[in-house]
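Work Package 3 (structural annotation) set out to generate three-dimensional models for the target panel prioritized at the project kickoff. During this period the team completed the workflow that converts sequence records into discrete structure tokens, so that structures can be stored uniformly alongside our sequence database. As a representative example, we reproduce one entry of 216 residues exactly as it appears in the project archive.
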Amino acid sequence: MSSQRGVFVTGTDTGIGKTLVSAILCRAWNATYWKPLQTGLADEDGDTPTVRDLAGLEPSRIVPPAYAFQAPLAPLAAGDLENVTVNPGRLVLPQVSEPLVVEGAGGLMVPVREDMMIADLIGRLALPVVLVTRSGLGTINHTLLSLEALRRRAIPVLGVVPVGPPNPGNERDVARFGKTPILFRIPQLDAITETVVSELSGHVPSLDVLQQQISQ
């Protein structure tokens, strides 16, 4: 595992809540945030300012994306539209003194370049994963497939974060068959604010404790 303390936040789908979970982790661990591959800037400001505002991060605790593309597509497709090929040499962990929260783009099998998926990037960065999942129907299949893909690459998983209305049955089966803990839960939210992020951050386990558990 990397000497840099931190995690890679990925999900079982796009638009699932990775950015919210990243903000909560940054707030809980007083971490620095990095989204190496940002797409979709034609439609929105991107995830970096969202996390900065929700987690109340100082500018010094934000690392700018290595690549920022306009189209709301996978990095490979968005880069093709701009005649840009992602150079893996730019996708190296920034050395920071605080824990680092790295947010991926979409799910594990999203193409970054012809010979690299997000899952391969996670393996290169050598950080353990926090997997964000839906709480409802279909999540067991998607979550177990994602966990299997991570384990096949020998990538350690700190745990799963379900997002949405409580579903104890799904949580039980994900934990049991996926052999991974539920780290914390994010309920259905009427609004996502800095206050909500601060409150949810109080339910996050310590990073040191989580890293000790996977190293045992």
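The chain has a mean pLDDT of 95.
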